[in-house]
């Protein structure tokens, strides 16, 4: 038993591993109990057992194993970590459980496997079970099959992959063990249940008896689709749903839901591919050409047998296809034609997608062959073409099909239409885009009018199918001209169609939509409004031009500008007229006169043809007035223009009359419903007058108006043909000019380029130079829209002309076409056509290419030529290739059908003669350009072989191949290349050259794609093998490409694909994936329509930029944080890369490798300074260029040679971009380790990077930007400041890249600009970015404007250089930019400024055009609707850069002020935005009284002075005067929070946290408050808040207002949140007001606002209704008491008086409010006896005086309550009582005391009290006082001294204590203070002595001061600041400064001597207020104070610069003169200071 007890004590996990079976059994049992108890699946308990679960299931003892299996099952079911154990546990179950005799064990084992599948580990389980099928033990095999069967039956075929199981089935049926065979049969039946007949082919070769048995079983199975009965964890909600449905009896519905649950297994996938090419009869190719048809038949039959194999292996079938095609096309024996067609069918079915490359050759032949009538031939051909269609896409064969549609043979037409119908059935809305549908519909529409009924029927079927597939909305535009009967017929067909893919419900709705269309009236109802296409325009004219419209819609009536050809949204208001417009007949002159006379004055009509021009002019004026007043619906346009054309009509000789006439035409076109009929009447006249000097402009205006009414395309065509049918060159050139302009205004949509080009060619040939110039200008404008392909039309022009055209094109390069401005207004593009446009993002550029006349060259590609190209003699081959090149060159643009050429050229790509390979590649490049986008069809058969050439060993051949592939990809896009397995097959080849070139190419192309075909995943396994390739370059390329693959496939898929790798490889690859994940770029965003193609929808353009800045700020915040990590990650990866890189090139000798170990940057002392000097002295070129010339590069090279490692320099200036990438990788590596070197060579590094910006290679650019991000992060950490030289030679070039078309790059550049602000002042960045807004590149303009907005938002208006006004004017210019994004960016930027600066913006901008102004106002309105707290975020992003003390003093002085003011402003701005958005609330109106609103405006006007009588009075703290003084010696001083807090780090943090207190976001605010509370609660830290109290209180009461006005009114907000915020605020305040020293810093204005806020809160009835509301109000009560007691008594008393005055004045204020203010005052009155000595009575009496002035006694008596007058009397009475007659001496601050009601009142009171007390004179009072003194001296001396020493001992009051002790000793010279000093430390004693000595010295030095009060206050002003300016901050032993306090002491004594009341430093009235007397009572609110603080900061900075010590007083001292010269004072002070210092030492 002893042994037993041993293991009983062990913990569970150790028991489980014990060697005794009992111990293990016990362990498993206990584990089971533990597992059942744990409720939380993520509990850490589970992890303890991770390693043990395998042991549970593989236990050697059968009994114990059973228990272990039970425990393991519970573990797998409940533990979230269980998945990690899948592999080992399942393999354990397979090997150790399935062979057990006990059935229970097997059951548990199967259950465990199924449970693993349930927790999403199906793949691993299935893998292990399939491995188990290879076991020698039949028991194990049976159990594995059974497990698989159960899994399939329960989870379904979606989870259990059937393909691998089906592959092993035949082997299982052959097993010797009967159990295995039976189990195989069961699983075969189960599989059949899921996939039905797909299972037959793979099992066709098993034993026939077994097959028969299976058939019998299969028949018995139920027919319904099976459903899974058990679900994965992630699907279990679905299970619940199913159960609900079943319980509700809704099974049918469930079935519907799950129809697509079961994946359709493709039988093809399960088959083994058969290789047939080698099995063809040897003489096949001879026999197929034989004369005898029987021999040909034999050959074909042999093929037929072979192609019956259901899956064929890929290979080169080109020759076989060619042979079969020849039989189909040329053989006369129709039986053989049918046989060959069957062979083709077999090939297509067996090869599937791999047959796609041959489809293009065969399709035309088969379609042509449909002329055969014999049914079996037709059927064979139909089967063939249908099978072939499935191997390719409709897009690829569309050209061929469309070509055949025009065939004359009706059978061919019929069969083609039927084929199209069948093809459409396989399409979906996305695979049948408009661009493809349009040409098909056009062809089919011809067929429905065909004379042959079978052709018509077939066409109806095809159109009906299209309708069903894509829905009516897409097809309707093409059916505009179809009459009602035919439309109905199409609809009828559509309803009968059965689609292959099964169309989802939802057609019903579309059918409804269709109904209104048929009539010719404008559509109404659903279709009318939604179908943004205008259906009612079947005018034959424009329809011919349909192909030219951009987005493939038909041309619409109305404005062409409706972008993207997406016409107007059913113009309801113009319905009637549009119908009329279509049919408007030409009216006779009589009818016109009649109509005109109905609307025009009679005189007008009579005088039309008067011979007197004045009468005609008068008549025109009448005419114009009449037109202006006419209503649109009543204006007879045609009649009016006919009247104008009436004699003298357009031959009018008087220019004034003519001008009027033209103006009227424009008016009619704008205001009336102007038809093309009317237009035709006037256009001729207009064109005739367009060249007229005086009338030309009016003619142009009229033409523009007509273009707007009748669409530009139509108008332009008319105008051009008219202009060129006459001889006047002036008219021609002006017409062209008008057209250039019109295109810019209307956009290019729908214009018929071909028609223009012929006219332009005529113009170019004109003799008149003006006409030629205008034509070239027009071409320039067209170039903007059409692109470089436009030049192709003019290549045969004379060289001189061509060079002019090129120059014009050059000018336009890089510009994006302006967004259309005309025609948009009337046609708002609705959201729907957006989607339609979106279908074809790449249509934009290509459709002009479609207009080019393409030549058919297939007839020139003769069989002789093809055989030449394949000849044995290379010279003849070369001749053949030359001929091909000649043919392509001659044709320029060719049709896609090029006959046998592809196969011939493909053969030459692997020619043994490399020269021919290169020539072939050149031809293929030509071919791509010549064929344009249609080259897509040849990607598979010609493009992929080009990729094979990338594996060539010769460098130049590879380069040529890469260039060719790029030329092709440019035309085709990447989709075709990535589809299918071809690319992955290429990557599979183990050719290092091929691999590295192909991966490099993919790495370049993938980042630019928005989406990729799913086949990309096929490349991944080969990519992984490349990662471990022997060749280092291949590995490197694979690593580079990895992030881009991941960008498209996602990390999960990529990680999953590692499953097939060996374990070691898998770990390596996974590590690389992790690394790549960190560097993974974002997918490029969908291009904004407006920029990517000029016609893009106008809707998105509006919203897009609005989101711009937001995104940006987010991205940059994200950027900043992970950067250091990213830097490390990058470092590691690039080290790894470079390490691998080094191994590869074995050429480099070892020595060179060692050289690389040293530093890469050598620090040259003063190197940078010398370079800057050289540049200034013009010894070297200034770094300034548009593109870098060689001399710049050479110069940089020589400059670098001294300070950059030689080998790195070679890489940096290498001609190959890959070396640049290497160099960048090395630089990234060394960035951290060589900081000094990097900074020393920074100017050169930045210059080198600017050169990289001019490279075309994207990968280098992205690397460079990556490096820059890391570099600037490092520089800001090092607190480095860019020099002017570095900035000016780098920033302009960086800004160029902001306009890069790739999104990724733009984002990076913006992030870098953001970081630069940390190392270079934002205000200096501003002009550079401003310069960027002048670029031709619209993207750059837009991005720069966005960036300017961000700068202003983050740093306030001070960044705007040279002045905010100038800067804003520049920005405002861009509101009128022709590019939409730019306009938006400009508007957003100005809105940002508005948010910072308020209405002042409008002044700064100056005058704007009306249109721009209205856009701006609209945008500002919109921005006000969504208040944001964004600015605060930005501050967070850009930490203060002023902490560093660099020599750049100028920068320093500027920095802090910017920061400080922007912080204060940001608080206000946040509040401001919220206040603005709230002005709707009635409570708000009540709350925010006028004063505040005014103040807010003022505060934001940085440069305007506050319009208020006492601008500088509120200097709330003396510290403000001292602040700047201490800047010079920041490092020596003992850090005290009071001084220079702008520079200390804590201060900036506190500023920032305080700014967050006022945040609109509750959580942000609460967080900030908690942080502040932490500071306040710790005594040692609370000191840090000093100097920030006002700021903090302002933020707090702003937050109180915000809650009161916004949050409380917000229904959505949880009220608990608000209570939480309130309690935070109140808690914070209570903490603050318990610390007396801090509480006293609060100034009057702030206290007033604070009390206002608190009292308002106490009265808020909404709070009382909340649960904890009462508690909040009680806390506020407590807080108010604290505020009254602890604040500076003068300030709080003053604040309450002002507040009372305000509340009585404000009509909106409630009487309750005033009552509470008075209660506070009474409380203060009660405190007066204790506080009277610390109060500045002068100020209080001044406030009372002002109060009485505003409320004379009579007025007060009129108040409803008598409280105010009683309060005032009580206060005055108490003051009189306490001060006695002396109170009358405190009226110094009141101007004319005699008029003051106050003085009279006080006198009365005094008199009254005198009468009462008899004749007690002042003397007696004094006696009394001295008597008290004597008593105190005798009895309470000890207490008194104890009190004083207590003060000296306390940190806050030490100065006061010393002063009192000094006074006391002076008074009682014999007093003994020894006993008090005796008990203290030596240190304390010396401190006291020293303190007394200092005070003595000071006081003795101030003996000679005049006694008159006026002057003394003056002296006091001078003598305080003067000395402080020279005080260096001496730390005294307590860590406090001596400086200011010493002077304050002095000041106190001065005040005593002058009879002024002595107050503490904080209590003093502002200095200036002692001097200047305000004439009008003003209220100093905290906002004024804030403003004054800002202005003081600014002033103090200036004073510090000029050390003009007196400037502080000069503005306030008025007429008084300074009595003592400041210089004397300074010297005196200096001496004294020296003495103090020496005495301290």
SSE layout:
Blueprint: H1 2-8, H2 12-16, H3 21-37, H4 44-48, H5 53-57, H6 62-78, H7 86-97, H8 103-132, H9 138-155, H10 162-173, H11 178-195, H12 208-220, H13 236-247, H14 251-258, H15 267-270, H16 284-287, H17 293-307, H18 318-330, H19 334-351, H20 356-369, H21 375-389, H22 394-405, H23 410-426, H24 434-447, H25 453-470, H26 472-475, H27 484-496, H28 507-514, H29 525-530, H30 540-543, H31 575-583, H32 589-599, H33 602-607, H34 613-629, H35 637-645, H36 655-671, H37 676-689, H38 696-710, H39 712-725, H40 729-746, H41 753-764, H42 769-786, H43 799-812, H44 831-838, H45 843-851, H46 863-869, H47 874-891, H48 901-908, H49 914-931, H50 939-949, H51 955-972, H52 975-978, H53 982-988, H54 992-1005, H55 1020-1027, H56 1032-1049, H57 1051-1056, H58 1063-1079, H59 1089-1092, H60 1098-1120, H61 1123-1143, H62 1150-1155, H63 1167-1176, H64 1190-1201, H65 1206-1212, H66 1217-1231, H67 1235-1240, H68 1242-1253, H69 1258-1277, H70 1284-1288, H71 1291-1296, H72 1303-1316, H73 1322-1332, H74 1338-1355, H75 1364-1373, H76 1380-1397, H77 1400-1405, H78 1410-1425, H79 1430-1437, H80 1449-1478, ...
Helix pairs in contact: 3-6, 6-8, 7-8, 8-9, 9-11, 10-11, 11-12, 17-19, 18-19, 18-20, 19-21, 20-21, 20-22, 21-23, 22-23, 22-24, 23-25, 24-25, 25-27, 32-35, 34-36, 35-36, 35-37, 36-38, 37-38, 37-39, 38-39, 38-40, 39-40, 39-41, 40-42, 41-42, 42-43, 46-47, 47-49, 48-50, 49-51, 50-51, 54-56, 55-56, ...
